[in-house]
Amino acid sequence: EWFRQSAAEEAKAAGQPGKWLFTLHNASRLPFLQYSENRPLREQIYKAYINRGNNNDGNDNKENIRKIVSLRLEKANLLGFDCYANFVLDETMAKNANNVMSLLNNLWSYALPKAKAEATELQKLMDKEGKGEKLEAWDWWYYTEKLRKEKYNLSEEDTKPYFKLENVRDGAFAVANKLYGITLSKLEGIPTYHPDVEVFEVKDADGSQLGIFYVDYFPRPGKSGGAWMSNYREQHGTTRPLVCNVCSFTKPVGDTPSLLTMDEVETLFHEFGHTLHGLLTKCEYKGTSGTNVVRDFVELPSQINEHWATEPEVLKMYAKHYQTGEVIPDEIIEKILQQKTFNQGFMTTELLAAAILDMNLHTMTDVKNLDMLAFEKEAMNKLNLIPEIAPRYRVTYFNHIIGGYAAGYYSYLWANVLDNDAFEAFKEHGIFDKNTADLFRHNVLEKGDSEDPMVLYKNFRGAEPSLEPLLKNRGMK
């Protein structure tokens, strides 16, 4: 019902009252794929999404990407590197393409078998319906939601009432307060670029100002989809930063506030983790402060922050029913924890496929006669990627590789190894252990790019990161 209301509001805003408008933004596309019983329409919206920039029209990106990749190779060659990836990776934790591919291929050997097992399970669910249909890519979300209900008796309709946006945000603030002693207070009357934007003053435990924090949480026409953190002003010396989080959560409709999915809850905590990196930094120069670190290190503060979102102790702090104020029941918490590894084969595989596609594009040493679609198809065939799963991003709409993450999309997975290993330190000593939090703040959040990231990590953890916690937490071992 919430999604129908949201689609009706979208249509009304577009001058089509009495109708429903579904878009390719995640906040619209994913619930449509999840809940719509209309299989041909699921196929239509899925195919429209995966063919963005690939329709041989004025917005086609194939030739644009080919030119970009060619120019990048030329640049790398001019600077003495055999390929663009090795040029980019020379100043990262990974150091070179071989190290990155070693990690990605290692993870692939665990992820693909799990994804295939999940596909088999979904097909069995379809077979039970007796329609004689074969699982297709546009069926994955719909039957995954059905399987989730069957396995765990838990749907997003059960959890969303407990995840009112403002409560989740306050939960993220409360975690930061318990870990680092900081407080965030809402400011009124501050000029903003849109009425949806809210502003907070951030203070340290001693009352000193750490910075100003802006949030812009709702989609609107002309605004990019997705979620990110950015700075309006970087920290340097005694100048404190102005930091923002931008997201695309469902807007409140009528008496119903913005209610988040579990994935969106983790997105909010993720972006706020970047914010902590930007706010707690203590560096002399703009270029090394806050999130101005190597790409395979920048996602550590954001991804580790996601771990607190689903800790039972933390859920009880912020997950309260938006109508009754009831704290989320233990049985729902238990189900949330049970399904942490659910659908992880799919999620890891689509992410890995995109990361490997990015690396394949940027490890090429010859780009003559490059056909982007043929190249993508060959790359996925080599991986034996199953047809029910597409890379999270295809070449024609892979924003990360057009923007600042070329030969860098792997960094989410690299940082995933770091964040799972780092959170083990908190689990070993207590998730709000003051000493562990101080070590993380002083060696990671405050230091920016002022020292080698592996040195900083080892100063915090006492050792290099292990892959085991990641495999365990994704149910792959």
Count of helix runs: 20
Helix and strand sequence: HHHHHHHHHEEEEEHHHHHHHHHHH
The CA-CA distance between the termini, in Å, is: 38 Å
* Spatial ordering of strands, largest sheet: 1-2-3-5-4
Q: Which geometry do the CA atoms define?
A: globular
Number of β-strand runs? 5
Helix coverage percent? 40-55%
Q: Spans with pLDDT under 50 lasting ≥5 residues?
A: none
**Mean of all residue-level pLDDT scores:** 96
Biggest beta-sheet profile: 5 strands, mixed
Alpha carbon gyration radius: 22 Å
Find the structural class using helix and strand composition. alpha+beta
Report strand %.
Answer: 5-15%
List the helices and strands and how they pair.
Elements: H1 2-13, H2 26-35, H3 39-50, H4 62-78, H5 84-89, H6 97-128, H7 140-152, H8 156-159, H9 165-180, E1 183-187, E2 198-203, E3 209-216, E4 228-233, E5 242-246, H10 262-280, H11 295-309, H12 312-318, H13 330-338, H14 344-362, H15 372-383, H16 399-402, H17 411-429, H18 434-445, H19 453-461, H20 468-473
Parallel strand pairs: 3-5
Antiparallel strand pairs: 1-2, 2-3, 4-5
Helix pairs in contact: 2-7, 6-7, 6-14, 9-10, 9-12, 10-11, 11-17, 14-15, 18-19
Sum this structure up briefly.
With 477 residues, this protein is an alpha+beta fold. It has helices at 2-13, 26-35, 39-50, 62-78, 84-89, 97-128, 140-152, 156-159, 165-180, 262-280, 295-309, 312-318, 330-338, 344-362, 372-383, 399-402, 411-429, 434-445, 453-461, 468-473; strands at residues 183-187, 198-203, 209-216, 228-233, 242-246. Strand 2 and strand 3 form a beta hairpin.
